[in-house]
From TrEMBL:
Cellular component terms (Gene Ontology): membrane
UniProtKB keywords: Hydrolase, Membrane, Metal-binding, Transmembrane, Transmembrane helix
Domain Calcineurin-like phosphoesterase: 157-325
Residue stretches spanning the membrane: 23-46, 67-88, 108-132
GO biological process: lipid A biosynthetic process
Cell membrane listed as a keyword: no
Pfam families named in the record: Metallophos (PF00149)
InterPro entries: Calcineurin-like_PHP (IPR004843), Metallo-depent_PP-like (IPR029052), Metallophosphoesterase_sf (IPR051158)
UniProt entry tagged with the keyword Transferase: no
Protein name, per record: Metallophosphoesterase
Amino acid sequence: MNGLWVLSVVVHAYVALRLLPGVVASAGAPSAWLLGVLLAVSAGLVPLGLRRRKGKRTPQEVRRSDLLAWASLTTMGLFSSLFVLTVMRDAVELALLLAGLVGLPRVPGHWLDLSAVGVLALASLLTLVGLYNARKPPRVKTVDVPLKDLPAALHGFKIAQISDMHIGPTIKRPAMKYVVATINKLDVDVVAITGDLVDGNVYELSRHVAPLAGLRSRHGTFFVTGNHEYYSGVQPWLKYLPTLGVRVLINEHVILLHRHAPIVLAGVTDFSAASYDTSHRSDVALAVTGAPRAAVKVLLAHQPRSATAAVSAGFDLQISGHTHGGQFLPWNFFVRFQQPFTHGLHRVKDMLVYVSRGTGYWGPPKRFFAPSEITLLRLVNQTEPVRA
C-alpha cells in the first residue's frame, strides 16, 4: 500500500506541475488554488479505492467505508482522465515545439495556457458522462451464435449471460434485482454467470447477491469463478451460491438434455486461480474429461485467454467476460495486450468466443464507449446471419 501512496503522489505532482502554470495564466490564481486542492485531495483518496477490505465490520462501518469508496473511486475516475489528457497535451506541446524548431509557425503561448483549462473541462465532462453510463441499468444485448451442424432441437437455444457484476461498495441489491427481473422476462434455457460477481466477503454482501435465487430458466443457473472471487474469499462464496440455486462449475461439466438433444456445458476456474489456490488451477481438459459425444459443447471461462485450451479440448463456444470492454478510454486500447479479445463475438479456428463487456463495472463508476450489458446468446444454424 505504501508504494501506491508514493505512486499516487508522483503522478498527481506531474499533473499539477504541467497544468497549474497554464491555469494561473488563463484563469487566474483562485482557479489554480482550487485545482491544487483538488489534486492534493485526489492524491490521498485514490489509493483508498484500491484497498481490499478484510474482516467483519459493523453496518455503520460498512456504510462509512462505502461512502469513502464512492469518493475515492469517483475521484480515481476523474484523475484517470486528467492524467491521460495531460500526457496527450504534453505530447502535442512537444510536437508543436519541434515544429517551431524547423521553421513552422509557432502556436501563441496563450493558446497553450488555455489548453490547461480545456484539459480540466474535458476530464470533468468525461467523468460525468462516464458516471451516467455506468450507473444506468444495463441493456439486453442479443447475439446470434452460428454453429455448424446444429441439431434442429437446439436451434434457438438461449443463454443469458451475467458477467463482471462486481457487487460491492457501489453496486448493491437493487442492481442485482434489476438484472434478475430482466433475465426472467427473456424466457431463457440457461443462465451463465462468468465470474467477478462480487467484490467483498459473504458476511457483508450475501443479502445483495441473494436476489439470484429468483432467477428462472429451463436448465438452471451456472457459475464460474473470476479473479475477484479469489480476492474476496472464494470458499465462503462457493458454499453460499448453491443455497441460491446456483450450480458452481469447478473444472467440470454437466449434460443438459434439451428436446432430447444433449449439450455439454462445462466451466473452469479463473485463468489465474492457481495464484490464489493451487487446488483451483484452471484446467479446460479436465472440465470436459468423461463428457459424452454431443452436438454442442459450451465452455464458461472468465477470461478470454482460456480460448486456446478450449479449442484443443473441442469446444464449439466459449463464453467469457473479464475485460469490461475496456470500460472507459483509453483503457479500451490496452486490454488487447493482456487478452486476445476485448468484446463481442470472435472465431478461433473451429470455435466461437463471446466476450461480454460486463453487467456492472469495476473501480471508478465510469463507462465510456463500453456500455454494460446483459447478454442473450441464441444458438442458431450457421446459415443464419449473425447479429453481434
